[in-house]
Write a structure and sequence with these properties.
This protein has 16 helices and 23 strands. The chain is an alpha+beta fold.
Length: 654
């Protein structure tokens, strides 16, 4: 990897976050449009793979697998009600594949504006897809091709009328959520309201037809994400009814008459009875009474992110307390060392407390993405670095493992142990994980910084250039780093119109401070103590590590000022809480934010029979493989039966 920063020849337009009195977050996310990630770096490579491979692949799959055709046929029916079509789509949520790909493409436009899709500029290609979607929208705003293609004989999961099976399999609200997410991203990237208008029209339809008023359907999403999407729509438009609808969906969950039995996703036990159907959908009790992460891990993650949105945007103490309790449960009892969540393939769900198997771990890619969403919102609510620590662990391990470096292979589950039964695939029939990767990876620039008043938070470390307004005055800064492979970060003030002092808050990662995660679920077992240093223009920085976990430097910054950050980075040995039975007698090896994996292709022996020394010594060496990585080796032993049936110990280098 190149350490020298590459200056991007793009006009950087200063943009500020939404005013705090509008969006209501105590801390505001710096827009992805303000951050340009440097090509050729760790994240630059992944963004380029997304640009060159993943996004074009996803759009081609939308064409090949008739996603656009669903909209076109629905549009034909809207134009002429006598025209109906046989609904042959695979899933009732297939509409979300174009939505999610449009969202990712919108983020990508900022980093690679000259991208083309099949020879068409990406902006124009997105316009053409949006035009197809727009024609499929019914006059009152309803947009659901699984029904609109043929209302008399809709998709088998759709029900005979609107919202009838929305708590089961129709996914009408799930589609709405992804449409809103895509629409806001497209609007922020281009300033165009074409997709935003479609999302508003569908959201308005839902607000009219669903709620507590007489004549409205009193239902909630079967698969959550509408709550997140509506919160984003509120932030983009300032129309409070969208936030109120998101809160209604959350308030109503768990409030349904218990005598009303509903089948949820085929969740049956061996005797054929409904099994934990309410926990599966997080409807076992009102959300304000929940204190444990349960059920389908993706649905749960999206709901918890929506709860954090409502907590932050309304400052409702009940919501703040509830999401705090659930977060503590995840990080303290249900979180993998890789940052994955979801212990079991049965219901793609969280397990019991401390139930964290390795071979059978599910850790769905979508669940890791959901965990990032939750923790970023928790940071925006509370401003504590521990939430970014959890986000970072998921980001570098349990999330990007879901896509190959080339951008054309995907994991659905991401287990911690395998005997070769897991291989990445080019796509899936249920394409939620690949399309989720499409939208998440290009959004990475939006997670690096945040702002509050005259403070700029540096949350993640990646080579990039930021242009941002701080109290109305434009500031341009850049990062230059080889993180996560080393702990050196150079932050430069490249331009500033700010005449007054302002603060730069640099996150000191938990792994530097001796904290694997902000709980006792995992601990370092090697006794090492790492340190860090921060210099300003070559001299020790005048600042302090504050209770929020940030080293805060406040001064009158001028062009040419440089902050030099150094984090000690050494291989560390991690052990799990004794209550995690699956990890008894086992250790994990990590360095910086990266959890390392011992794989058979790198070793000529079974890595599942390795014994590490009680005090292992590690060597770190550079490799140009995998677009440049730092590898680790250590002396170890294997124990296995020889040909005569006796146990044999061999010295090996792992």
């Amino acid at each position: 990897m190149k350490k020298s920063i590459l200056i991007i020849a793009l006009a950087l337009v200063a943009s500020s976050v939404h005013a705090q009195n509008k969006d209501g977050y105590p801390i505001t996310q710096v827009p992805f449009t303000s951050v340009k990630v440097t090509p050729g770096t760790f994240w630059g490579q992944r963004l380029q793979a997304s640009r060159d491979v993943t996004i074009p692949l996803a759009f081609s799959k939308c064409e090949e697998e008739h996603r656009y055709q669903n909209f076109e046929q629905a549009a034909e029916h809207v134009k002429d009600a006598s025209k109906t079509f046989k609904v042959t789509m695979g899933y009732s949520f297939d509409d979300t594949d174009p939505y999610k790909t449009l969202e990712g493409a919108s983020y990508l436009m900022q980093t690679y504006p000259k991208t083309t899709i099949n020879g068409t500029p990406i902006d124009k290609y997105c316009d053409s897809v949006i035009a197809i979607i727009a024609k499929a929208q019914e006059p009152d705003g309803y947009l659901y091709t699984a029904r609109t293609q043929n209302p008399e004989a809709p998709h088998q999961w759709a029900g005979t009328k609107r919202w009838q099976l929305v708590e089961d399999l129709s996914h009408e609200f799930y589609n709405l959520g992804h449409l809103c997410e895509a629409a806001v991203a497209h609007y922020n990237a281009t300033g165009k309201t074409t997709l935003l208008d479609i999302a508003k029209k569908y959201a308005d339809c839902v607000c009219r037809e669903v709620g507590n008023k007489p004549g409205q359907a009193k239902v909630v999403p079967g698969h959550q994400i509408a709550e997140m999407g509506l919160a984003k729509l509120y932030i983009a438009t300032g129309d409070k009814k969208y936030l109120e609808q998101a809160k209604f969906f959350l308030d109503q969950r768990g409030q349904v008459d218990p005598s009303w039995q509903r089948r949820r996703g085929g969740m049956y036990d061996k005797d054929g009875y409904l099994h934990k159907i309410d926990e599966y959908a997080q409807s076992h009790k009102p959300v304000l009474e929940q204190d444990e992460a349960v059920g389908h891990a993706v649905r749960a993650g999206y709901m918890y992110a929506g709860m954090a949105d409502v907590a932050a945007l309304t400052q409702d103490k009940g919501y703040i307390d509830a999401i705090d309790r659930i977060w503590e449960n995840i990080v303290g009892k249900k979180y993998y060392v890789t940052g994955g969540v979801g212990a079991t393939s049965s219901g793609e769900a969280f397990g019991e407390n401390y139930e964290l198997p390795n071979m059978s771990a599910y850790c769905e890619t979508c669940a890791a993405i959901g965990n990032v969403y939750v923790n970023y919102r928790m940071f925006l609510l509370h401003g504590q670095s521990k939430y970014i620590d959890v986000l970072e662990r998921s980001l570098y391990n349990g999330l990007i493992s879901g896509v190959s470096l080339e951008g054309d292979g995907f994991f659905y589950p991401n287990p911690l142990e395998s005997i070769g039964q897991h291989q990445r695939k080019a796509w899936f029939g249920c394409a939620c994980c690949p399309s989720n990767i499409c939208r998440f990876i290009p959004s990475f620039p939006g997670y690096i910084y945040a702002a509050k008043g005259n403070d700029l938070y540096v949350n993640l470390f990646a080579s990039n250039t930021l242009t941002q307004k701080i109290e109305g005055k434009a500031v341009t800064i850049s990062q230059e780093t080889n993180y996560p492979w080393n702990g050196d970060v150079a932050i430069s003030i490249d331009k500033t119109a700010q005449k007054k002092p302002f603060g730069i808050k640099i996150r000191i990662p938990g792994w530097v401070k001796g904290e694997v995660v902000p709980s006792d679920l995992y601990t370092y077992a090697d006794g090492k103590r790492l340190g860090y240093s921060i210099l300003v223009n070559g001299e020790k920085a005048e600042g302090s590590l504050t209770e929020d976990g940030y080293f805060t430097i406040e001064r009158k910054w001028v062009k040419g000022d440089k902050i030099s950050v150094h984090f000690d980075m050494e291989p560390r040995v991690v052990k799990a809480n004794p209550n995690v039975k699956a990890d008894a007698g086992r250790i994990s090896v990590e360095r910086g934010p990266v959890v390392y994996c011992a794989e058979w292709p790198d070793n000529d022996f079974s890595v599942r029979s390795v014994l590490l020394n009680q005090e292992p010594e590690f060597k770190v060496f550079h490799s140009d493989e995998l677009y440049s990585v730092e590898k680790i080796s250590t002396e170890a032993q294997t124990i296995a039966f020889n040909k005569s049936g006796k146990l044999e110990v061999k010295d090996v280098t792992l």
